[in-house]
Amino acid sequence: MVEAVLIDLFSLPANLQNNIQGLLHNILETIEKCSSIRAPCVYVMCCQRQGSERKDEQEFLFPALRGFQSLNRRLEVICAQTTAAALYTIKKRLDEKDLSIIKVILPTIRKDLMKVYIDHLFTAVYQFEFEDLQVVCDCESLQISEPQHEGQTLPSQDVALIQSEIQMYLESLPSLKGELTILRSSLIPDDIFLHGFTTRTGGISYIPTLSSCNLFSSCKRRDPQVVVKENLRRLANAAGFNPEAFHRVKIDHANAVCIMGKTEPDNYDGIVTNQKGVTLAAPGADCIPVLFADPVRKACGAAHSGWKGTLLGVSMATVNAMVSEYGCNMKDILVVLGPSVGPCCYKLPHESAKEFHRIDPKCVRLFDSANPYIDIRRATRILLERGGILPENIQDDSITDQNQNITFCTACHPDKFYSHFRDGTNFGTQIGFISIKD
Question: Which of 36, 159, 202, 305 is the most buried (most CB within 10 A)?
């Protein structure tokens, strides 16, 4: 069942612009008569013509909508100077109503263009159907263009122009939820390394559970890759690293480690380098983003440590990679655990809790319950110390000076951090990042 209809009138020829009211009348009448579309939300996308008075163009278009009482409360006209701006505004409306099945009615000549915009601004959460404008309305004046051949694709230069238009629009948007904030550890020397842990503020993601500096996109979430890229650009600008030399782990919830400069595994939860100016990153939204730094051999690493990765020893696997690849001394390596779900909130089924109990009984609280509380941070510290990392070279929530603490519980601080545990499937993601300064 279609949940929303998008009518694309963005590139109407001049001879039809004067008859836009009649045009809308015919389209809406057809929608109303169509039994397969039962009172959907209707969005009319129009170009805000240059030189027109600065007033709401909806006032100009609403006379065409009189007599459609069943649609009036569910119809909105979106006027913008670019397709990217109009479509992004419509996306916001869809997300506010949690709608995902959309019929797009548009001139045939716009179909390939629209598909490129949609591919960039939407994820696989949404389903789109396309219908030719001249097919929907049996008015001869709506035969706007000659149909293109099925399967025809846009030239690469046209795709590049669309990408540029989208990027410029996203860059123009204001930051949400305050300024971009980066947490830094006093343990990692800032004369050698650039590093930090992000919070949720200062980006452009607007969906409540993803707002605002979400740094991960997937087919299951509503935040597209272009928005995440813009959030990353803003982070890079604030932190001082090059977003084009940025490498994020490819999460597998295991213990594989990627060595920068060597063959990249398909998936890995740890990554290391001794190259200057290359930024490594590990995501976290309850799982621990762990950063590693050796100021003597000038090498660094990042790891994503969830409960499975913790049990599999991903942190020590990252340390061992630094030792074997760059000749690091175990006693020189500094390790910082970033914001992650704390033992105050995190529960696992009893069978999984047994594995943490074997590491140390103090890693589990209420062990005899069906879902004991788990301390994955303590488990990570214990495994690192057993592997040879000095206790004083590990920073986590056990730090005595709480003013220096950056290992906050993500679930306990909804104003500062994302949390899968707290927010559910459509959750946002923060990261820990590190690089060797030039």
Answer: 305
